From TrEMBL:
Gene that encodes the chain: cysK
GO CC annotation, single: cytoplasm
Modified residues (N6-(pyridoxal phosphate)lysine): 40
Gene Ontology biological process terms, A to Z: cysteine biosynthetic process from serine
Protein name: cysteine synthase
Upper taxonomic lineage: Bacteria, Pseudomonadati, Pseudomonadota, Alphaproteobacteria, Acetobacterales
GO MF annotation, one: cysteine synthase activity
Assigned keywords, A-Z: Amino-acid biosynthesis, Cysteine biosynthesis, Pyridoxal phosphate, Transferase
Chemical reaction(s) catalysed: O-acetyl-L-serine + hydrogen sulfide = L-cysteine + acetate
Pfam families per UniProt: PALP
Family the entry assigns: Belongs to the cysteine synthase/cystathionine beta-synthase family.
EC top class, as a word: transferase
Residues annotated for pyridoxal 5'-phosphate binding in this entry: 74, 178-182, 266
Ranges of residues in domain Tryptophan synthase beta chain-like PALP: 3-286
Cofactor list: pyridoxal 5'-phosphate
Length: 308
């Protein structure tokens, strides 16, 4: 199962280009082709493998070792399937505003789910995870926001896949800023090889902390943590784009209906930013690549599907 992670497709969006009369080229990297349907499968496996190599975790130990991690959902799901495949106990903490689909997938995979108040955001989930880990003998925390294995796996895999699939002609990469590991890893691998490559980070307009605003609650799950993660190297991000919840929902629906690609909410935010960039004269003729982190069906209980 773990060997099926990665090698996700990069697809062009010709109908959206035509509908908007764009002179730039658009492509989405469909990370929901990973086995548990999100970008986070890459870091779930990578962080556990790194811990095993360092002697911090032993597969199939008796009793099973415990992994504790705060998550908005997809990292937890990635860790849950890796933990199940390797024989670990997993406890995740997450804001209670996360979609029901995420909670149920975690429980289906055998994880123990501890919910924290949504208004406290990821900071609240992190604090609770720290408390649980401290009270659990032998517990290990991946700490996705600070773990160098996070950007490293994106440098080694995600970036290389983009480079190969664009034949080195990628001009702009757009990704949501959750941990920041995706953009940091891609920038680390590709900027030295592609002078002029532009890296664009997307955050919720309702919680644009990295742009200088106060953090706040928002509905774009998976990005906008409300603090600067340790793995995020902001100096490698060329532009920050704020996208509202309404814009993210609208772009995700547009992608499904125009291209037949049902993307999640944060992916809708990424697509909205891509469409905005594509209309700017300096990007005419350029190839704008976006990271579609997850699949629409993980958000059936959210406003993405409201009225359907």
């Amino acid at each position: 199962m773990l060997d099926t992670i990665g090698a996700t497709p990069l697809v062009r969006l010709p109908r959206l280009e035509a509908a908007r009369g764009l002179q730039a080229r658009l492509a989405l990297k469909l990370e929901f082709f990973n086995p548990l349907a999100s970008l986070k499968d890459r870091i779930g496996q990578a962080m556990v493998a790194e811990a095993e190599a360092a002697g911090l975790l032993t597969p199939d130990a008796e009793p099973p070792q415990t992994i504790v991690e705060p998550t908005s959902g997809n990292t937890g799901i990635a860790l849950a399937f890796v933990a199940a495949a390797k024989g670990y106990r997993l406890v995740v903490t997450m804001p209670d505003g996360a979609s029901a689909e995420r909670r149920k997938m975690l429980r289906l995979l055998g994880a123990e789910v501890v919910l924290t108040p949504a208004p406290l955001g990821m900071a609240g989930a992190i604090a609770e995870a720290e408390r649980i880990a401290a009270a659990t003998p032998g517990a290990w925390m991946p700490r996705q926001f600070d773990n160098p294995a996070n950007p490293a796996v994106h440098a080694a895999t995600t970036a290389e896949e983009i480079w190969a699939d664009t034949a080195g002609e990628v001009d702009v990469v757009v990704a949501g800023l959750g941990t920041g590991g995706t953009l940091t890893g891609i920038a680390t691998a590709l900027k030295p090889r592609r002078p002029g490559l532009t890296l664009v980070g997307v955050e919720p307009a309702e919680s644009a902390f990295l742009s200088g605003d106060d953090p706040g609650p928002h509905e774009i799950q998976g990005i906008g943590a409300g603090f600067k993660p340790g793995v995020l190297e902001l100096e490698k991000v060329d532009l920050l784009r704020r996208v509202t919840e309404r814009e993210a929902f609208a772009a995700a629906r547009l992608c499904a209906r125009t291209e037949g690609i049902p993307i999640g909410i944060s992916s809708g935010a990424v697509l909205h930013a891509m469409l905005d960039l594509a209309q700017q004269p300096e990007h005419h003729g350029k190839l704008i690549t976006g990271i579609a982190a997850s699949f629409a069906e993980r958000y059936l209980s959210t406003d993405l599907f409201h009225g359907l």
